[in-house]
Amino acid sequence: MIPIPYEVMDLIIEYVGADKYYTRDRASLVSCTLVCQGWRPLAQAHLFRTVAYNVEEQVLDRFLAFLEARPHIACAVRSLSLWADEQEEELSEDDDEYQDSDQEESTPNRDLFPDLLMRVVAALPALSQLKLERVVLLGWPKDTSLPPQATHLSRLVLHAITYKPFSPPPHSRHGDTTAPFDMLSLFDADRLIASGNKGAFSEADMQLAGVLTLPTPARPAVRVLDLRGDDCFLRCTLDRGGLDAERLRVADLCPVDVRSMRLIRSILQYYGGGLVELDLDMCEIANSGESTSSAEESHPGLWGICSLAACVRLKTLRLHYDRSRSRRRQRAAEYQRAYSVILASAPATLHELTLSVLGLVMVDGLFTAVMKEIVPLILQGFVRFPGLRAVRIVVRSRIGIERCMRAMRDLLPANIAESGVVRFEHPRTFD
């Protein structure tokens, strides 16, 4: 019998274990582990490449023991996801009387001990992605040292986490001896994706208690930042010296309210000097109406918070223009005002400007109306940025590029329309 090369067997198992959505077909991979002794380690490597656990089942201790007993499997894990189910809506006072003590005790436990988390991370030498979602992150135990150095990850995802450094659960193994800590200082991440993370504490509490950070002079390193809304972990890090400003090069920022706008202002002020690529999405806050109801700032208004004056190395700027038909008339002026103020604050170093209008549909009259709304921004870009090499307008893939260009030529000055700088494109991913 001719032996099958190792690489060929690995490709066969990878093909068998992938379904049509490019995720793991776990049942097939388990079957592959039982084929023969030669297939077992290869199939296990694919089977445990991505691991996801619900923290409500309280299995993290057992998972750590499993990894320590089987280091060959620990070396196979590339992605770890720890999550909890979405909480049900709180009961009204009238419903409380029907809840007995047994039901209260059965409330799912979403608590995550950070020291246990880092022990699991340390047991996974090949880990490249960590995702925490909807968990309650507790404080660091005072009787346990922080890791000696940050853990490098290609991607760190923090979503809808409730950070409670001062609220250890009843019967905790650490009692009341936990302290707040700088979560982001524990990682060196190529990409940080953060959204909806809230802290159950005040800044006065944090100042009084003192925040634990890694005993190293280096600041937390993030190279690409994706932020939606406010984030307690970024605020905590900012108050303690911030991220390494020399390492952050790309930012994708989406404010949802005035508080998150203030955080974005701090991010642009602290790290703007190193940014070369910036993605700003003002759609949600512009559509919410909060921008017009806020009176805390005078001219240039709320949008002046997101000044790009500190972004002296910025080369690429991407702006989102959500033109859903239901909101088009009401918010068109707000979009123009927002992005006009932002463009006016941007440095003259910009080379590429992108306007994403993926919500646009090709309806008679609507497409031309939306193009008329963004033409002033394009003209402003040509005046503001003398080195502008490309203005990209991204439309959904079902809209024809040539038809878009014909419509735009009728709206732009001839010298700009024929320069080839303004071009339409389809998104690189499915829209």
List keywords for this structure.
431 residues; alpha/beta; two-stranded antiparallel ribbon; 17 helices; 20% strand; globular
3D architecture notes:
- The chain is globular and about 70 Å long.
- The protein is built from 17 helices and 18 strands.
- It is α/β, with parallel strands linked by helices and 431 residues long.
- The model is unreliable at 89-106 and 293-299 (pLDDT under 50).
- The chain has a 16-stranded parallel β-sheet that branches. A two-stranded antiparallel sheet has the order 6-10.
Tell me briefly what this model is.
With about 425 residues, this protein is of the alpha/beta class. The protein has helices at about 5-15, 25-35, 40-45, 60-70, 70-75, 95, 100-105, 115-120, 205-210, 230-240, 260-270, 285-290, 290-295, 330-345, 365-385, 400-410, 415, and strands spanning about 50-55, 80-85, 110, 130-135, 135-140, 140, 150-155, 155-160, 160-165, 180, 185-200, 220-230, 250-255, 275-280, 315-320, 350-355, 390-395, 420-425.
